[in-house]
Amino acid sequence: RDIAYDPPPAADSPHAGAARVLEENWTGTSTVPSRGLYPHQWSWDSAFIAIGLRHVSPLRAQTELETLLDAQWGDGRVPHIVFNPSVPLDAYFPSPDFWRSSTAGRDAGAPRTVQTSGIVQPPVHALAAWLVHRADPGLSRARGFLTRVYPRLAAWHRYLLHRRDLGGAGLASVVHPWEQGMDNSPCWDAPLRRVPPAPTRSFRRADLDHGAAEDRPTDLDYGRYVRLATDYRDGEYADGQGLFAVEDPAFNALLIASEHALAGIARELGATGTARHARAERLTAALIDRMWDPASGMFLCHDVRAGGLIPERGVSGLIPLLLPTLPRDIAATLVGTAYGPHFGLGRTTRLAPSYDLLGEAFDPHRYWRGPAWFNTGWLLERGLRTHGERDRAEALREAMLDLAVASDFAEYVDPYTGKACGTTRFSWTAALTLDLLH
Ligand code: 9WN
Q: What is the pLDDT of residues 203-262, one digit of tens each?
């Protein structure tokens, strides 16, 4: 390096480091979760990414959400993956030729010009759109950002609350573990046992080209994922028939938080948000009624096909802490559970594990069976602040910043040691770091 002529190395601040990850992963219209392992656009990743990106470029943050919503289906579903046509088919499995959205999804209104998956992911988008708007209201108004995204977000929620009310309790069900986003959580073990796996030789796992096998779901898990997705596709993505249907606390809590955000958006656009707040209230009551388990001190998943709660403590059962109108005693109990022996916060862990430290299926390295993730950490930090737990929120925030930077923005970390697992330079870890820095 020629000291006289070359500029000094870029500032080594966490802010600059995180912004660089998002820059590297930007494709021009959206951000990939990671260059190697996940080379397309993912739905809930994009929502978290936009929440961080708004601090670096409100325009890119708006574009991120617009690109995703451009791939929305006629029935309102927002697909979990929007495929980048310039990426080779064998770079990620399942690829567009597996989902066949433009043919198998025709009746459900899949777009013609872009290939997508046929399943969904948690509805963090309205919350993200509202936060993105508030980062630069002038730009947002000038571009008509909310005017354009509001009807799409409303249709998305309508899809979830009508076509996906498979349990009849007014809540949304997921029909595939990939939809809830915590793919191999032990919460799915029992409902998945009813699903006959597709033969391992019938597909090729591109994920193992990039991720260590012991950090990823097993071949048996994949066989079941493939079977469920194949059945859904072969039924032309009509809802209601599948072997797997689960109501999940995090998925529904995010829907409720997004419904509150839609109320804010409606108000900004000159309507009243009253009906949406009222709906969010009804959903909160339904969530408590259906999934609150006083004996475990947290929310549990509801198995719609078998009927009844699934007796496994996953981090998704703590996420409803996010909800502003959660009854005080429930919020206090949730905090107690997060800081108790099952999740160990402030004792043995600094960032909540994805699954019960004392659970039989706990594994500190295998994906959603124990490792700590930054998106759930971010949601819990928000929940703690919402319910007045300032000191705990601050400690969690500091832990997340330390671990994100030390792990080079890992996808997830060992909950005890903070050691990086999965891929590094992962977009939502970088984006949520940026958000916590502001
Ligand atoms: C399947 C992209 C996604 C996340 C999920 C995470 C993982 C995909 C995979 O990666 O899932 O959708 O191939 O394992 O579990 O939450 O959205 O980052």
A: 999 999 988 898 899 999 999 999 999 999 999 999 999 999 999 999 999 999 999 999
SS3 call for 81: strand
Contact 436, 13 (CB under 8 A): no
Contact 417, 350 (CB under 8 A): no
99 close to ligand 1 (CB < 6 Angstrom): no
Q: What is the mean pLDDT of residues 32-45?
A: 97
| Ligand 1 centroid – CA 178 distance (Å) | 7
pLDDT band, very low/low/confident/very high, at 1 (cuts 50, 70, 90): very low
d(CA 438, CA 57): 14
Active-site residue flag, 389: no
**Where do we find the tokens 């490792």?**
371
H/E element, 151:
helix 145-162
Which ligand 1 atom lies nearest to the CA of residue 43? 17
| pTM of the predicted model as reported, rounded to 2 decimal places | 0.97
User: Residue 362 C-alpha to ligand 1 middle, in angstroms?
Assistant: 19
CA distance 17 to 23: 10
The distance from CA 155 to its chain's CA centroid, rounded to whole angstroms, is 19
| Band of pLDDT at residue 12, cut at 50, 70 and 90 | confident
For residue 316, the model assigns a pLDDT of 98
Q: Cα separations (Å) of 172 from 116, 120, 294, 417?
A: 21, 11, 22, 36
Is residue 247 among the annotated active site residues? no
pLDDT of residue 259: 98
- Six-digit token string for 313: 């403590």
Residue type, 171: L
Tell the residue nearest (CA) to atom 4 of ligand 1. Answer: 181
Tally of CA atoms within 13 A in the half-sphere of 7 that contains its CB? 3
Strands annotated E in 59-125: 81-82
